[in-house]
Amino acid sequence: MKKILSFLIFAFAITFFAKAQELTITKDNVDYSNGTYNAWFDLADYPGNNIYSLEGLIVKNIGSSPKTLRMFRRELSLVSGTENYFCWESCYSPWADTSLGNVILNPGATFNTMYMDYKPLGQTGESVIRYVIQNLSDNNDTVSVTVHFNATPTSVKENKAVSKLTSLMPNPATSNVTIYHSVNQNQALVEVRNLLGQVKKSVSVSTGTKSTDIDVSDLAGGIYFVTLKSNDKILDTKRLVVE
To answer: Is 125 helix (H, G, I), strand (E, B) or coil?
Structure first.
């Protein structure tokens, strides 16, 4: 009898585990499913209301049937005085823990329009937040990633002239956005691209300029990518939300 009971428990565990693994989360070809991702960044790079955004996470349906998915946020520990929110197709307020929009993934399909945003607001330290993706038709069919947001004190950096985007303000933007940058090339381009990679705005910038203003009032609301580009090479990219 004990052997039969043990076998049934083992069979149930195997079945549950198989279901739980029908979703995966990866980034840069590394599997973080039900694991931990450490996000380190220098506090000096995100002053004021500037947002550190964790991008590039990909959810994949490795099961054999379509899934309708939503996202949950679970704040495990937070540094006092910080804010965070997430985007799952749409971006939610810092007070929202569950997505309203649901994403349908067919077998083998992937979804990458998800972002974990964190505002250090001048605070150093580590905040830990778990993000759970759940299949609406089976509450046990989930995958999660636990992110450790580590805002480090200003470090002593090498004195190198590096072309980069430093911040976008405001972000989200409704009419105009100011793009702050450091450019050491003679000529560069600041481009605003949609999720399909289409260039919607393009402005030339040169060495010595610190910021560029772009009118985004004619762009449809959604997520865009601002890139700094020189000699057909993308030097830096930041995400912009237009409302």
So the answer is: strand
Sequence-distant (6+) residues with CB within 8 A of 16 are: 140
Query: Mean pLDDT across the stretch 83-111?
Result: 93
Which value, to the nearest 10 degrees, does the dihedral of the CA atoms of residues 67, 69, 74, 78 take?
Answer: 120
Are 143 and 34 found together in one domain? Answer: yes
Beta bridge partners of 70: 134
Residue 17, judged by CB atoms within 10 A of its CB (0-12, 13-18, 19+), counts as: exposed
Pick from 69, 99, 94: nearest CA to 84: 94
CB 94 within 8 A of CB 85: yes
- What are the backbone dihedrals phi and psi of residue 3, each rounded to the nearest 5 degrees, phi first? -65, -40
The structural domain count of the chain equals 2
Structural domain range at position 173: 164-242
Other C-beta atoms within 10 Å of 204: how many?
Answer: 10
Is the pLDDT assigned to residue 10 strictly greater than 60? no
pLDDT in tens, 144-192: 999 999 998 864 344 345 677 878 888 888 999 998 887 776 678 899 9
Domain annotation covers residue 44 = yes
Last residue of a domain, one of 102, 122, 152: 152
Largest CA distance in the chain: 80
Residue 214 sits in a domain of what CATH number? 2.60.40.1930
